[in-house]
Amino acid sequence: MSGNLRENLTIVATAAAVIAFTAVASCAPLHSPPTKVEETRPTVSYKYSTDEELIQARPQAATFCSQYQATPRAARITTDADGAKVVVFECVTSLPPPPPNPPNLNQHLTYTYQTDAELMNAWQSAQDFCMKNGRQYVASNITQNVNGTKTVTFRCTPA
């Protein structure tokens, strides 16, 4: 009889464990909510060798980004292993609101720069300025200065 009692106690203990596990498991959520791991914007890259080619890459990026109803923003500039320079544009969908009193859109926007990154920052500033006012930009001139810097001049034109 003691073997039978032991067997019955084992069955009761096992049943209690199963009931306890089932009770705890029924309180746990079945699925955890999705967690964002990464969000990427569409990008496009262009190789270039001159400042003029770097500026010309922007309209090509604009064409690419238009399929996403977005505008290009220079994200980074790198140099490949073969020495070629590469600009990467991200397609972004938001622009800042226009200023309350639009400035003179016929003025030239002039920036002095030394690096490709500074040129892209100047381009971005000019683009933002013109687009906030319903215009597109045109690079009108790049000149070499005697102190080693360069100057780029943009002009807003109708869209």
How far is the first residue's CA from the last residue's CA?
Answer: 97 Å
Could you name the CATH topology of the domain at 95-159?
A: Dodecin subunit-like
What proportion of the residues is helical, as a percent range?
25-40%
Number of strands: 6
Category from helices, strands and their pairing:
alpha+beta
Gyration radius over CA: 31 Å
Largest sheet: 3 strands, antiparallel
Biggest sheet: strands side by side, in what order? 1-3-2
Apparent shape: globular
Mean pLDDT, all residues? 76
Instruction: Count the DSSP helices.
Output: 3
Give a short synopsis of this structure.
The protein is α+β, with helices and mostly antiparallel strands. Helix content is 37%, strand content 30%.
Describe the model:
The chain contains three helices and six strands. It is of the alpha+beta class and 159 residues long. The chain has a domain at 95-159: Dodecin subunit-like. The chain has a three-stranded antiparallel β-sheet with strand order 1-3-2. It has a three-stranded antiparallel β-sheet with strand order 4-6-5, with helices on one face.
